[in-house]
Sequence to fold (213 residues):
Amino acid sequence: MNTKGLLARTAAGALGGMLLIGAAGAAIADEIDGSDVTVDVQIDALPPVGALTMSVAENTTSLTEGASTDPELRQFNGVLPTVTVTDDREDVPSGVYWYVTGQSSAFSASGVPDIGADKLGWVPRLLTEGNGEVAPGDEVVTSLDEPTQGSGDSANNVGLVGEELLALALDSSEAHAVGEWQADADLFLKTPKDVAPGAYSATLTLTLWEDAY
Fold:
C-alpha cells in the first residue's frame, strides 16, 4: 500500500472540509458591535493672489552744489531714485486708497553739528501717465524758504521732518487698472552760507500706505 499517497489524499480532504466549514460560518455571521469614526479636515482659504508693493530703484543718491537764489544760503540739488508702486492683486478691496510718503533724518557728519531735516525739501514728480488716478504730492520747501502755498498750519516750508506726500492714488481699484506707477522728486538742501564743511549723510524713509475712506 502506498502510505504516503493515502496520507496526502486524507490531508487534502480534511483541508477541503475545513474551508467549507469556514465559508459556511462567514455566511451566517452576526454583527456583534459597531462604531463610527468622525473624519475631520480643516481647509483654509487660499492666500490672496498678488499684492500691493513698493520698490525703489537705488538705495542711495547724492546732492551736489548748485546756484542759490539767496546770497546768504548754499543749495545742494539731487533727484530721488525712482519709486515704483505695483498692484497685481486679483481682488482689490473697495473703498481704499494708497499713498507714498517720505521723511528724512538730520544730515550728520563727523565732528560737526547736524543739519536738520527741515533744511531738505522736494518737488514730487509723477512719471507714469494716467487719467488722474494717481497724483503727485505738493512741493515742500525748507524752513529757510518762504512758504509757497497757504499759511499757518498749511504752510509748506517745513522740510521733510514729518511724513510728506510723494504720490497719492485716490482709489486703489482705479489705480489698479494701470497696475504700475512710478514717481520721483527733485531734492534740494539749503544751508546757511557758513555751514561747517563735512561729508554729511541722512536717511530718507519712504513708506507705502493703504487706508480706507
